[in-house]
Amino acid sequence: MQPTEPSDPDTPVAANPVFGDEPITVPRFELSDGGLNPAVAYQIVHDELMLDGNARLNLATFVTTWEEPLARRLMAESFDKNMIDKDEYPRTADLEQRCIRMLGDLWHAPDPSAVLGCSTTGSSEACMLGGLALKRRWQHRRRAAGLSTEKPNIVMGINVQICWDKFANYWDVEPRLVPMDGHRLHLGAAEAAALCDENTIGVVAVLGSTFDGSYEPVAEICAALDALEQRTGLDIPVHVDGASGAMIAPFCDPDLVWDFRLPRVASINTSGHKYGLVYPGVGWALWRDADALPDDLVFKVNYLGGEMPTFALNFSRPGGQVIAQYYQFLRLGRRGYRRVQQTCRDVATSLSAKIAALGPFTLLTDGSELPVFAFTVRPDQPFSAFDVSAALRERGWLVPAYTFPKNREDIAALRIVVRNGFSHDLAGLLLDDLGRALETLGRQTGPQRGPETAGFAHGTEKPPAR
Predict the structure, then answer these.
(1) Secretion signal: which residues (predicted)?
(2) Helix (H) or strand (E) holding 441
(3) Domain of 27?
(4) I need a labelling partner for 367 at 20 to 30 A (CA). Which of 94, 421, 431, 461 fits?
């Protein structure tokens, strides 16, 4: 989205004289000659940021918007630590490895001490790494058998996050997207297996679709691929995109088998800055063992006096988020995470039931998997989902409205993400504001807004042809 600027682009930023310093105006798009008093510079930036939305009321984002003061203090104390400089900051590097071991144990790696992984800037980078490992393993197998490596493809549901289309585009892999069909709003096992062939580098299963919060059936997908291997000899690995669900299911659904307990699952990613409960940005990518991560993707770097392996896409990045992740693992433990995540789910299921009881809405999901639910406006109502979204925005709530992709473009939904810090009390206030909005919207003669008015973009869109 383009930034909002004054109609005259040459208009300088005005510094009100009450700030108590000179100059009164400063350039907007170029460096000033002399700089500013730090208090004035702070006030200018601070005042502009007041016009941003309130992050705590942003029910569109999965990203953490509340953290304990002590976690924030640790992050502030670590602003100057470069995560890549493991020789200079060996304790920070060790905390990263402890987090990887903890996640390996949480996700039932065959040997948590042998699991390979790294922190990333978020789950999108982690997905890229997972996809790269799938492609490289496929290339090695094909070359060893004397076969072509020219036309790799990857199978996934059309509901995957946009980072997977980016991966396919950037690394020349054909994306084979399974469309939605009827009430199936994510990837199905039979549909995934049907698209696989000798050039398939892997199947992506999403544990927690961002469209509606539903889990994809990872175990069923693996079973379908097991059957495919028995029939054809094709051995197709699975990457689980657990950006959100990999930090929900282990605590709220411990009996759900989706992780390294399934031998076909080669790698898993998650977002530490989503339900890992850390401010952005940190993600995690893990591989079940050394065979799942080709060694030629790991670089040995001599940096500032020490040699270290690196296989993240980014190099320099802050260490504070990794430190805060370790703090949260220490602070909460399994019972603490279960308490936080189950509370989020309880808020989601309670709120979704109350929204359904209002009458004008139909639930697509109820928040009983991810603490996320989607709902539509009944066709007999004189307003659209986009009208509801705009009305709630007037009251400070950011509740996105969006249309679903291919084969279900007829669905226009609203979605609410419940995160740590969104309490039953806040849910009640949202419900009150929604009720007041419905009183006004019910007096309309028909819907006033459509998809073209939405400020929220969702899902995968192909880039324009060049």
Answers:
(1) none
(2) helix 424-441
(3) 13-52
(4) 461
CATH of the domain at 428: 3.90.1150.160
pTM (two decimals): 0.91
**Is the preceding peptide bond at 152 cis, omega within 30 degrees of 0?**
no
DSSP count for the chain of H helices, then E strands: 11, 15
> From residue 15, how far is each of 28, 40, 404 by CA, in Å?
11, 8, 45
DSSP conformation letters of 378-410: -TTSSS-HHHHHHHHHHTT-B--EEE--TT-TT
**Residue 318 and residue 378 share a domain:** no
Question: Using 50, 70 and 90 to split pLDDT, how confident is the model at 465?
Answer: very low
**Based on the domain organization, do 90 and 129 belong to the same domain?**
yes
Domain assignment present for 62: no
Residue keyed to tokens 């007829």: 410
Say yes or no: 204 and 350 in one domain.
no
Question: Positive or negative, the Cα torsion across 38, 44, 46, 47?
Answer: positive
> Would you tell me how many other CB atoms lie within 10 Å of the CB of residue 117?
25
| Rounded-to-10 torsion of CA 370, 371, 372, 374 | 100
Strand (E) positions, 172-245?
Answer: 174-178, 200-206, 238-241
Residue 9 confidence class, pLDDT cut points 50, 70, 90: low
